Amino acid sequence: MAKADINGKDRRWSLHGMTALFTGGTKGLAHAIVEELAGLGAIVHTCSRNEDQLNDCLSQWKMKCFHQIIGSVCDLVSRAQRQELINEVSSQFNGKLNILISTPFI
């Protein structure tokens, strides 16, 4: 059996040093998954079409000590904004992306 770390999490599930992009991670289950990824040690970039909602989530996460969650405003329908998101995330993560979760959009 693997040893648990000080937070009680099984070391097999550590995402320490990993990077993740989660599009649309500010509501519902997606919001919870962003927190779980960060809780397991990943650096997470999320985006939302709604700047106020994104800023509210980022503030809440900082209060919960999830300082490794960052975000940007992006409407994935816009090709230009998708490209800007890719450029921003590539720059922040030095070209290294381990996890991509893209929520469906309508």
From TrEMBL:
InterPro entries: NAD(P)-bd_dom_sf (IPR036291), SDR_fam (IPR002347), TR (IPR045000). It holds the Pfam family adh_short. The keyword 4Fe-4S does not apply. Keywords: NADP, Oxidoreductase. Belongs to the short-chain dehydrogenases/reductases (SDR) family. SDR65C subfamily. PANTHER family: NAD(P)-BINDING ROSSMANN-FOLD PROTEIN, TROPINONE REDUCTASE. This is Tropinone reductase homolog. It comes from Prunus mume (Japanese apricot).
